[in-house]
Design a protein that fits this description.
alpha+beta, eleven-stranded mixed beta sheet, 6 helices, globular
Length: 290
């Protein structure tokens, strides 16, 4: 009987991205590595639980859910989340950042100083720059100021990030231009909290870290895992939570590893490269729209 693996998500470590499996096992995600797995016939996706604890009722969750949790576990997971604005008294220093994912796709966000650039790697930010450092509430107020005064969002949907990766500007200067302009406008805003120390614009380009330069372009994204389906291909890039797998002559598919949590997976064996899960090609509207 094939060994069963249960994915607990993708993490960006100091030496690169890894897949984490239930029980603590880790698989390093090295570009050029062949990756293949299948969902057994009759498989069911169960809730990933909350804050390191399993779901008490092992609730079944939809295949297209990137959260991978039932309503109760999702509520518990976010109850102590800074990102969800549920914590106001964290004494750690925070940084405000500006992130760029493609032309016209910029966002503002905050992250604890001790995390370094991990948050930007997790989000798949192609470029970023720090804007300032200070207490949590000062960082929060600065984030809100940019949303209100400059209409800078604090979220960019992952589907939009994936769709533009194949058409990113070729030069670092072009990729950095929007961030430099936004940084200048942000530091000139009146009403910024005095406790936030402004940082100079130093754009960090992560295109090479992700492996998005020069490899096969992604033509679509996996929308869900299904029982009896499988995928096998060469890992050509890792951006945020996404694996880019070259699966044949057409190029690569982007697989959001958050869709893998809760499934019991088995090796794909020696099957030829390909994807047996539903794939939505970039440039096509979501299902249900005219």
């Amino acid at each position: 009987m094939a060994q069963v693996w249960k994915c607990a998500g993708l993490r960006w470590m100091a030496d690169g991205p890894v897949l984490v499996w239930s029980g603590g096992r880790r698989s390093a995600l090295v570009r050029g590595k062949r990756i293949g797995f299948a969902v057994p016939e009759g498989g069911v996706r169960t809730c990933a639980g909350a804050r390191g604890n399993g779901c008490p009722v092992r609730a079944v969750v939809p295949g297209r859910s990137t959260g991978g949790r039932c309503e109760e576990c999702a509520r518990l997971e976010r109850a102590h989340s800074v990102a969800a604005d549920k914590v106001a008294d964290d004494p750690r220093p925070y940084r405000v950042y500006l992130a760029w994912f493609g032309p016209g796709m910029v966002k503002v966000g905050i992250t604890a100083v001790e995390r370094g650039p991990a948050r930007l790697l997790e989000q798949g930010a192609v470029c970023f720059s720090w804007l300032g450092t200070g207490p949590l509430m000062a960082a929060r107020r600065t984030e809100e100021l940019l949303r209100a005064a400059l209409r800078v969002p604090d979220r960019v949907p992952y589907a939009e990030k994936r769709a533009v990766r194949a058409v990113l500007p070729q030069s670092e200067a072009e990729r950095a231009a929007e961030l430099r302009e936004l940084h200048a406008r942000a530091v000139a805003l009146p009403g910024r909290p005095e406790s936030l120390r402004v940082e100079p614009c130093r754009v960090v380009d992560q295109l090479g870290v992700f492996g998005l330069a020069g490899g096969p372009e992604a033509f679509g994204e996996v929308v869900e895992l299904v029982p009896g389906g499988a995928v096998r291909g060469e890992l050509v890039a890792v951006a945020g939570p996404d694996l880019h797998l070259a699966v044949g002559g057409r190029g690569a598919v982007a697989l959001d590893t958050r869709l893998m949590t809760g499934w019991e997976l088995v090796p794909a064996g020696t099957a030829a490269d390909g994807c047996g899960f539903p794939v939505r090609e970039f440039g096509r509207p979501p299902e249900g729209l005219f």
